[in-house]
């Protein structure tokens, strides 16, 4: 199933769950009058619909189970099984760590939606959940960008010593983490929980409080923030990734007679496909809808497609399940370590087997591998 088919199926499922939710309404903008926040009937119906109380918990449960298992194993492999660290493995390890830090908060998100979108864990935990959600999204984009640039550099400059410079990779990763943590600070400066009086629930980052006396001031800061993040942490990296992959394919295309280049080209195409699927499902819709949502709220529009907006944010979490495919297809070493880990084979056992195999010589007469130290011992392969 290609990326378009996957996205179509997910959207059809979303429509099926959301069919009972009225499409009109200002879009989860709680009107605040005399410190009392209320929602209109359309927004209330959407909060009660199967889209948020059934479909979202299913997606988040999938993300938690698959993401925790796959990324937990990836972090284990990169930390304890991979002896020779190189820039690509450093970028992939940080990407896996970002996903792992995100999925460990999923039980709170699942509980929130199962309980009818009622947040019972307090404002501080809501802020942490929101910051880790957006931090993971932009962290993933930036580390995928770093990995894509590294893949191009390795292929285009195979003799360069910079392709093995771990200090540069570590410095870049620290810079990405610092940037994400700094740009997450604004998310802690205002409350994300809203008490909805007419529904007797408390939402977490689902309702924007609009002051009836000054509507635009309520969302203009959020609009500026997400415009900045979408531009710097998504749009610009997207351009870099596209340019890197075009140059990568061009470089590999110039060496079509080389069998090694042909193999690298195949791996590059698979990598591009996996990254494309991740962006089409997880990052492009959510970043587009984030800016559009707050722009429409700022303009006072009465129909801002909130169901599509919250669904795109939900699908963003699937990147924690798709990222492990990047590690698997990019690194032969990672695949080998995962296989050995699943078979409970230690590094020492693997190294001993490699040493034993490398010490054998192939005998044409007996059509078998013969030990280099003795002609009387043989092992058929």
From TrEMBL:
* PANTHER family (alphabetical): COAGULATION FACTOR II (THROMBIN) RECEPTOR-LIKE 1 ISOFORM X1, G-PROTEIN COUPLED RECEPTOR
The signal peptide annotation in the UniProt record is 1-18
Q: Which PROSITE patterns match?
A: G_PROTEIN_RECEP_F1_2
**Localization annotation:** Cell membrane
Q: How does it sit in the membrane?
A: Multi-pass membrane protein
Cite the entry's keywords alphabetically: Cell membrane, Disulfide bond, G-protein coupled receptor, Glycoprotein, Membrane, Receptor, Signal, Transducer, Transmembrane, Transmembrane helix
Protein's name in the database: G-protein coupled receptors family 1 profile domain-containing protein
Show the Pfam families listed in the entry: 7tm_1
What Gene Ontology terms for biological process does this UniProt record contain? blood coagulation; phospholipase C-activating G protein-coupled receptor signaling pathway; positive regulation of Rho protein signal transduction
**What molecular function does GO assign, one term?**
thrombin-activated receptor activity
Q: Which GO terms describe its cellular component?
A: plasma membrane
The record ties this protein, via Gene3D superfamilies, to:
Rhodopsin 7-helix transmembrane proteins
The chain positions of domain G-protein coupled receptors family 1 profile read: 70-327
Q: Where is it mainly found?
A: membrane
Q: Where are the transmembrane segments?
A: 54-79, 91-108, 128-147, 168-190, 223-248, 269-296, 308-330
Q: From the record, give the cysteines joined by S-S bonds.
A: 126-204
Source taxonomy lineage?
Answer: Eukaryota, Metazoa, Chordata, Craniata, Vertebrata
